[in-house]
Amino acid sequence: MTNAILHEYPGSPFSEKIRVLFGYKDMSYQSVTIPVIMPKPDLIPLTGGYRRTPVLQIGANIYCDTRLITKVIETLQPTPSLYPVDEEATVNIMAQWADQHLFGIAVALCFSPAGLQAFAAAMPKAISEAFAADRKAMRKMGISNPIHPDVAHSHMHVYLQQLNNQLGENAPNGRDFIFGTEPTIADFSVFHCLWFVQRNEGVSAILKPFTAVCEWMQRIDAFGHGEVIEISGQDAIDIAISSTVNEPESGSVSFTGFNRGDRVTVVGTDLGIDPVEGDLVAAADDEIIIRRRDERAGELLVHFPTIGYHLAAVK
């Protein structure tokens, strides 16, 4: 059992990305089921305000965003690798495209009239209305305009056709995954977007004509979720409190205008909500680390990827 704790909920597509990744890596971990919408009373003390799902915790280290979480898991279990050296740029760029653009199309489909109708039918009215209101409020704070369902449908159809061609009978021999015989981070990032669509009976039919894509999804799904032990949110907070905070000695700050120890905030560039404030520990390459203290969770290091986040000085 690793000391990794995944804060998640079952219907979260980004959590599914990490769950099947744990399965592929044949890893064990602990899981905390968090609320689908705010408030999230046992998560916010750990993150300092970051509300998205999932969050990975290792002791008093809190990792936000699956872009960074996947790299942490790769460090914990380097083989089989998600980042082939000869295709590092290609797989990372495709993963980013999937997490941002393809997922936006998947969301637009699932929030189309047909998608919302199926979503509402699958759960009590009060819960589905609260979820829709929560996500609508988040989208209003975003920097991009929402995608019209008709546009999302036509774009998704094009992307599915392209994937089907690459994974189908006319693809190079042995291409079980997007870039060959083994999956990369690109596979898991595309998969969770289509998993979200597949789970919604109002829009899932768009996948059915693309048999190679559906078979590829089955191969990813077959990895399972690894060995999971459920713990409570309070258990996770207790683990954070009892853990020693060790700042990286080599933590460097290469961002212009910032120095280690500066009081800063980190906030997502797409939604621009819930900035997390703390003292800057490191900001270089593809990771930002801040140190913060919480009354319940104690001393913490909160980690973010560089891409997708904005670092600002506290005036």
Descriptive notes:
It is built from ten helices and ten strands. With 315 residues, the protein is an alpha/beta fold. The protein folds into two domains: 4-79 and 228-313, 3-Layer(aba) Sandwich (Glutaredoxin), CATH 3.40.30.110; 88-221, Glutathione S-transferase Yfyf (Class Pi), Chain A, domain 2, CATH 1.20.1050. It has a ten-stranded mixed sheet, sandwiched between helices. A hairpin with a 3-residue loop joins β8 (287-294) and β9 (298-304). The radius of gyration is 20 Å and the shape is globular. The mean pLDDT is 92.
Summarize it:
The protein has 315 residues and is an alpha/beta fold.
Quickly give the structural class.
Answer: alpha/beta
Number of helices: 10
Over the alpha carbons, how many angstroms does the gyration radius reach? 20 Å
- The oligomeric state is single chain
The geometry reads as globular
N to C succession of SSEs: EHEHEEHHHHHHHEHEEEEE
Topology-level CATH name of the largest domain: Glutaredoxin
Distance between the termini: 43 Å
Task: Give a quick account of the main beta sheet: strands, pairing sense, barrel closure.
Answer: 10 strands, mixed
Average of per-residue pLDDT values = 92
